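Q: How do we represent a protein-ligand complex in a form that can be generated token by token?
A: Start from the inputs.
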Amino acid sequence: MPYSYDDQNIFAKILRGEIPNKTVLETEHSLAFEDINPQAPQHVLVIPKGHYVTYDHFAAEATDAEIVDYTRAIGAVCRKLGVTLEDGTGYRLLTNAGPDGHQEVPHLHIHVFAGGFLGRMIK
Ligand code: 5GP
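Then emit the structure tokens for the protein with guanosine-5'-monophosphate bound:
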């Protein structure tokens, strides 16, 4: 079944500039901003600007240029936060998909958690 994208989701509104965000980094095809309810000392969301619901949707339908941009943007966020192993002590990337993954916002986002020891992820 094809994905249907709800353009009234909160990240679509952020991309349209209808609600504010604390931007960490912006590229041609990606936007990174601080999570409104941080679950770690540093908690950034990285989203593609295109209308993709989940990671698998993005991987299947995004252009090569979007995939390269998004992949590099996530790494650039880690460098900007100073948490790579060259500059810091690490980070965690996570994406939730669908009801079983407890995805709240139906626009692909990768969480970047960092800023302290994150402990073991149980699930
Ligand atoms: P999910 O559960 O879908 O993986 O994560 C959604 C994330 O979006 C949550 O961490 C939540 O705090 C964040 N979030 C929800 N609404 C807003 C908002 O309006 N602005 C920002 N910056 N983050 C939001």
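The mean pLDDT is 96. Helices lie at 10-15, 55-61, 64-81.
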